[in-house]
Each structure stands twice: as structure tokens, then as C-alpha cells.
Design goal:
heterodimer; A: about 350 residues; alpha/beta; eight-stranded mixed β-sheet; four-stranded antiparallel β-sheet; 10 helices; about 30% helix; B: about 350 residues; 15 helices; globular
Chain lengths: ~350, ~350
Amino acid sequence: MSVNVQGLSVAYRSHRGDVTAADNVSFSVADGEIMGLAGESGSGKSTIGNALVYLDQRMKATGGAVTVDGRELPIADNRAMQQLRMTTVSLVPQYAMSALTPTRKIGQLITDLLKSHHIDNRQRVIAEMKRRLELIGLREDVLSKYSFELSGGMRQRVTIIMSTLLNPSLLVADEVTSALDVSTQRAVGEMLLEFRDRGYVKSVIAITHDLSILAQVADSIAIMYAGRLAERAETGTLVESPLHPYTQALLASLPAVGMRHDQATLAGIPGRPPSLVNPPAGCRFRDRCPFAFAACSETPPLAEVRPGHLVACWKVSQEHAGEPGTGQQRPLASVPVKEQA
Amino acid sequence: MTTLKLDQVSKLYRATSRAGGLTPALRKVSFELRPGEVISLIGESGSGKTTIGRVLLRLVQPTSGTVTFDGKDIATYSARGLKDYYRQVQGVFQDPFSSYNPVYRADRVFDLVRRSYFGAAGDKEWSARVDQALDEVALNPGDVLGKYPHQLSGGQQQRLLIARALLLDVKVLVADEIISMLDASTRVDVLNLLVKLKRQGLAVLFITHDLSLGNYVSDQTILLRHGAIVEMGATEKVFGNPRHEYTKMLLSAVPELHRKWQHSPIGPVPAAAGAPLPGAAGGAPAATLTRASLVDEMAHAEQVVKRDLRAVLGTRRAAASGRSPVAVALEPPVLREFEPGHLVADPE
């Protein structure tokens, strides 16, 4: 297992106390796997992604452990993490392409970056960079350009190249295809596949709200809701036969190409996710769920209802309890459920 | 019948940064917006789709061409005429979070309408009107009135802005990317709201870059590229039988849930006449590119960066025709009728 996240909880400090944005999240990503992490705004998907690479001042890890290639990642220790960034873990933060310094040329920016990471033999790295630029169809002269001279898609690809320059084990790509045109989106998506295939990056966590992009590039998808994992499965399984009521509703609200309003009326999900300041006990989707019943007042564990298909829903785990090929229904007690502060 | 009609509308932006940079944002765009009809205006960044919305709302004056509302040129409106125009033609924009002033309560947008248009209305009459408008957009008055913007979800904010337009006698709604910042589960509600309002006779210009959303909601579809219409017609015809290479390329790039991208070359983006394609021809050895579609995308992206179309399109052809480069750059590709109600532009 290349990347293993066990029971990770991340909180934001606020003057009303800590707000747990990601609560007891566990998953693992294999070598060569692109995992999609999807959810709506406020679901905690970016919090998880950021926590694996950079915990900023407002955030603190309140529990859990992360290992990459068998070594524990010191996520709470910023200085120790600095040694591992770019080489072991790398992050393309949201809006990164809009954050390229406008007063430095792209080439200078990269040299600065390598210097700040104390990388020797920079010439060799830059030669490799040029090779990769060529590979994805960018000409070498982007290095002598300012960021505003490049299109959105070109900037996004430059940021991905920069983040993967030292072949990290894990790349966290946060909304790298959002705010791009469809044709550019596709190019960036295919670039992620290409880089994975060539081993420039071992595992990728692609964070996005856009499930259709994940259906194209991800090998597996994890769905988050209100700070917790709701469902995790291989991409084909999750898209074609989702089990969690939230995933089902989310997929049903997406129009397919060719679908018109007079043929079928799509339905949204009524209501809003609960506030994470004082989240309700039990399943957090309960208030919006058409299938909610008494058991939902307790927090459902993320149970493996079929091989490789994990769902956090009481109804689903009851229905699949006796199925052949089912993994053990984990008793609630063995899954440490973090109590809210 | 109230129709809003664009006739040969062009808009030329002058760049201040580069000497003599001229960007034809719109090239002789003509179409008509009729009551009870949703038109999707689809294009990528730099296609001019937002400029059309701004021209219709008279926030931008076209360089040439006219926009008529009920047969009257909107450029000729006096201040009073313009106010009356805005009573009937309203816009809602992409970012609901910046449409509100965060220090005031969100329903202040209603008060501003009241102050400008309904000074004579009594409190009771006004609140009945507000309640009715909120009911139209499926918002519960108790949930939204008196709240600050940050207490409302993006979907609620967007619907509140549509309700604000409905307080007036709105006939035309210019909806510029109104759902692109909303979560998937609330998007559909706003789309369905547009469909409902359309059935009540509202004309909607739905500006978007998202083909599947445009397809879902619209009766007519217009595809824009470099400020010119490349394909237009009834939505089922344009999407069911796309004819222009650009439309086909866009459709093939749309990520779909149940169908994977074909990792084969997507149809080539037609190059500007005679202009070299920097990405494809000049740089990368094609052999290193296992995914050939990257090359097409690259060529396209570079064209978009180089929005100074006079350089791309104008100069070369102007020399041949003896006309000014600007006039030539503003010339859109010729639209031909492929079948009744389905127009396709010549390759450019």
C-alpha cells in the first residue's frame, strides 16, 4: 500500500472552539492508483487533501496517522514535512494556476522553487522538466514567459509539472480541472493519466466536486459528506451501482449529455448539509435522506459490504449483511468513532 | 410578442497593454430571443458569450450592429426609457457571493428594487409581492428574509437574485453562468426553476460553458467560437447531429459518467486560415505524444491566448482583399442552412 490514511481527523481553530472538518477518515491508495475524492463544498475533501501535505496555521490534526511507502508522515510537524514536500508528497492547491507570481518568469519561478528545497544538480532537473513540457505539448519558451501570458490550461499544466518534478510518491491535485474549458479539462485529465502511467507520480488523490471528470480519470472514488467518508469503491462500481443514498442522489442530479428537460426532470437534494460547528449525532445525511430510520441516530461505520466497496450506511449494511462475498461486517465497537469536542 | 433581437452585433476591444492590440470579441452576431424560450449560449473562455450578455443589458456598447427590443433600438433609450427597459430585461451573474454586499442583509436587493421602481407601494402590498416572488423561486420567506448573505447557501443566493428580477415585470432574463459555482445537488433546482419560468412565458438567455447543462435546459442552442456563431439551431438538432468540427470536438471532450473518453485523436480544431499552428507543427515531436488529443488542445489554447484575431485572421486575408485588417477580422464565417432551423458555419 503506497498511501495509507487511518482515522485522520482535522480541525480548524475558531473562536468558538475547534471545528472538525474531516472526521475519522480512513482510506488507502495503491501504487499507480488515481483516487478521486469527491463531495460538495464544505464536505472536508480539500481539508483532507491539504492535511496530507501542508497543515496551515488554522488547521490541526486531532487524530489519526498517515503512512506513505510504509513511513509515517509527520503531518503535524511543518519543518519535518518541508523535507518531504515535492519529493514524497506534493500538492497542487486549488486555484494554484491563478497564484503563479506575475512578476517572475515561469523558469525563474521553478529555479526559486528548487533552491528553496535545496535541490542540487538543478540543471539535470530542468532538463527533465523541458522533456516533460515537450511531452505534454508545451514548448520550452513557456519558461521565459510570465504566467499571465499563458492560457488557463497552460498554467494549470505548468503547475502540475512543477509539483511532480521530483517524482513524488503522492500527488494531491485539488480541483485541477475546475475553471477550465471542456477541451482543456480533457487535456489536463489526460496529462494526469499520462504522468501516472509514466511513473512521474506513484499515487494521485484527485479532489473535485465534478464526478464526471473522476469517472474519466480515477481508478477509484471516495465520496465525502459533511466531514466523513460516505462511500468508497472502484470507479465503475461507484458510478454504475452506487449504494449510499447520498451518492445515489448526487449522481441522479447530474444531467447526461443529450438529456432534455422535457424528457426527464432531474431532482436536486433538498436541504443543506449540517453545520460542522455542532454536528448532529449519528448519520449526518439523515435529515436529507429518504430512507432514514431509527438506527441512523447512531454513526454508521464504513463497512465493506462487497469486496472493495465500502459504505457508511445502516440500511445498506443491513441489506447486504448476508450476501456471499461480503467482507466482515465490522462491529461498531472496533471502529473508533471520534466524539465531538 | 416581446422579442429581443441582435442584428449583426460586433464588439471590438482595444487592448491597452500591447500596442495596437485589437480583439474582436463579437463578430456580427445575430439571433432572436422570443418569449417562452430558453437559448443556451455555449462557448469556451474568450468566445464572447459574456460580452453578448453585457451588450443585451446595455453594460457594453456594441461597436456596430443593433439590439432591438420590441422593435426599438436599445441604444436610443433615454434615461427613463432605459429604466423601463431594465424593468423588463434583467441579468443574474456567475458569482452569487459577490453580487451581495456582505455588510447588508441579503434582502436589501429587494429594497433597492422597491426604491427605484415601486416607491408608491405600501408595506403590505410590497411584502405580498416579495412573498409571491419568493414562492416562484421555491424559497421560504422565513428562511431567507432578514439573513445576511453568508447565512445563505449559494443556491439560495442565486434564487434570491432571480426572485429580485421577478419582482419587476421581467420578460427577458440574461443568466450568465448562474449555476457554475453551485454544488451539483442544488444546481438542478435552479435549472428546473428556469424551465418553470420559461413555461410561464419568460425568455431566458442561458450563458454557459457546460454543454450538458445547456442541453438539459434549452430549446435553442448557439455555439460561439472567437466571437462568431459556429452552429445554431434547435437544441435536439445541434446536439443530436452536430455538423461543425468545433461542436464535435467540444462534445467529444465533455466528461460523461457512463462513457469514457476515447483516447484517440479528437477531431482537429480547424486552424486559422494560413496561420501556423505553434503547438502542432513547430514544437513537440508527435511520436512522444501517446495521447494525440493533447496536440489539438494545445493549438487551440494558443489561439485563445492570442486573442488578437487581427493578427491571426485579419492581416493575411486583408492583403488579399484590399480591405482593412479590422474589417476582415470582424468578418464571421458564413452560416449556411444544413437543415431547416439548423445553421452551420463554414470552417475558419
